[in-house]
Specification:
By secondary structure, this protein is of the alpha+beta class. The chain has a single domain (14-102), classed as GAF domain (Beta-Lactamase, 2-Layer Sandwich). Helices cover 31% and strands 17% of the residues. This is GAF domain-containing protein.
């Protein structure tokens, strides 16, 4: 799987997980009837395990997800779930910090007369 850098959104399981506000977990994707026709599961890629946490904005919009995949089925316990949830929260905090740091500063009327252009 190390040679895979991206997956088309149409077949990506992330397109399913972005619809949820909770974790999406498939310990063995071949046991999920809704995934049997998915080319990542049924095809050469051989996806078996999938877990994702949504990246949810403070106002409730899911931007994407942080996901884990494997070609072997896996157990996913409560500690794993907590770690994945925490990782998604950290990603959102970083995105919010980036957003705050890249806002255009607003010029208040109090200081507008002090700005000059050469």
């Amino acid at each position: 799987m190390t040679d895979v850098t991206e997956v088309e959104r149409g077949v990506s399981l992330c397109s399913l997980s972005i619809l949820n506000y909770d974790l999406t977990i498939f310990p063995d994707a071949t046991k999920e009837p809704c995934l049997l026709a998915n080319p990542l599961v049924a095809g050469d890629f051989g996806l078996r395990f999938y877990a994702a946490a949504p990246l949810t904005t403070p106002d409730g919009y899911n931007l994407g997800s942080v996901c884990l995949v494997d070609k072997a089925p896996r157990n996913f316990n409560a500690v794993d779930a907590d770690m994945l949830t925490h990782l998604a929260e950290l990603v959102m905090k970083e995105l919010e910090l980036w957003k705050e740091n890249h806002k255009t500063p607003k010029i208040t009327p109090k200081y507008s007369n002090q700005i000059s252009f050469d």
